[in-house]
Amino acid sequence: DRYDELVRDILKTAYQTHQDDNDKNAPAVPAVGIDLGTTNSCVGYYKPGRQNAGQVVIFKNRHNSEVTPSCVEFRDNSEHPVVGQEAKDNRLANPRNIIFSAKRLIGRKYDEPEVDRDFVAPDTKLYPFQVVDVGDNDAGVEVEVDGMVAQFLPEEVSAHVLRKMKEVAEEKLGFPIQNVVITVPAYFMDAQKEATKSAGVMAGLNVLKIINEPTAAALAYQLDRFEGIEARKVLIYDFGGGTFDVAVLKLEKGKVEVCAFGGDNHLGGDNLDNNVINYCLQEFFAQTGILIDRTSAEGERALRLLRYSCEREKWLLSEAMSANISVDNIVNGQHLEVRLTREKFEELNEREFQRTIDRVDDVLNGAGMSVDDIDDIVLVGGSTHIPKVRELIKDHFKGKQPSSRVNPLQAVAEGAAIQAQKHRNLRVLDVTPHAIGVKTTGDVMSSIIPARSPVCTVFTKQYKTIVDNQPEIEVEVYEGEKPVASHNNLLGKFMVTNIPPAEAGREIISVMLCVNDDGILKVRAEVLSKGTVHEIEVTEHKGRLSMEELLRRRH
């Protein structure tokens, strides 16, 4: 079929690239793009064509599907975890050892309210596996294999998914893959991006770049489009399994400029499922008078069965007007039967749908635009298949139909593949997702780079000494919008020394921050009276595992 023909053509091109690179003593591997999703992941390769045109193939796995569930199962008597559809299909039989939605945990702290609510607190948790503090307040998962308890960081779980995607690509290309571009939500904090990069290292990959998912989707939309036409303003609406992103970009041939973006790292299809689950529990109580105890073993089993049924039936509502959620012997020999209409599903999730529209307006305001300024709307992510979502978007944009140029489930991987092969020739002008600043007296956050600022722009702020004859100042750099500095994400710190003796407030230290287009933050502090300069670069590996530890944990 057409897919097989395309793969054969790409294999021929990739093999020639492989040979040419060998002849030049260059890395003998083409680069691929991976969409590391909350629910599903996929991998793609960009095949250049004539006159800089090209096409992307998303490789199919052994189940003949372009998407692979981001599920990892740790099994007894097995050297390696099981990843993908087989793990997902076994969730009811081995619930505590099958990890999914790890993306919602990656780079996060155990005491964060969202982590506690959804993964830890007995009366509200919605996931069957155990989430624990694995040290330094880092959230991780705990499994039991061959009678032994083991703990893993979410990036270790994600590494297994990335390794699986690497294998999918290698099976089609016929030789090893190392170079990769991986996508992340636009609103990820630096720690979450670094944890994702760490996952790539543990998977045996050379991560060329981490790019934002809306940017990747824009690259897929842009492919081969801009011959002879003017630049266009495009809004990317990315409603996935665990996160929501929205971005406004200006697209020209060979150039992508991010005007503004925003999002919610805790809003996705999982939230919609959870609302349906809670509704079904309420209906079951109304029908039987039985209140299911989430903290009991029987209650945990009931939730697993119910989640499985809700996930399956939710998709039917994109085509049908109603679905029946049914679980035999959910507890005490009782059967759960709930008829869920599309109207009721929309009512249950009205707040979540409206939150996405509110984020759209926030981003448009941040870009200084209105809905009338947008030329095209690109829908990305599985949740955009929901009819109500498409209706809300169309109504909000005064009847404008979203573009059908890209596949919502594959667009992010396609864009990552384009970035992977063209990363030296493609101009992506990004913005910083969060404010960056320094800690001042009283643990107050003093922002220097505002959120949504263009990268490659220098920002400077001046600070004074606070005590007489102050010899040094520690500069702590944080990322985030919280007024208490230590509640934000620490990026780095260093000492400014040899400050001349003087009364408090006489000596001035100028702090300069700049983020380049590779995400490297340069910090420069100068004692103005002496002209002495202290500099650091927040670059290379700044995650929670050392490079040596990452290499040791390679899968």
Automatic annotation (TrEMBL):
Annotated keywords: ATP-binding, Nucleotide-binding
Molecular function per GO: ATP binding; ATP-dependent protein folding chaperone
SUPFAM superfamilies: Actin-like ATPase domain (SSF53067), Heat shock protein 70kD (HSP70), peptide-binding domain (SSF100920)
Entry-linked Pfam families: HSP70
Database matches in CDD domains: ASKHA_NBD_HSP70_HSPA1-like
Family the entry assigns: Belongs to the heat shock protein 70 family.
Name of the molecule in the record: Heat shock protein 70
Organism: Oppiella nova
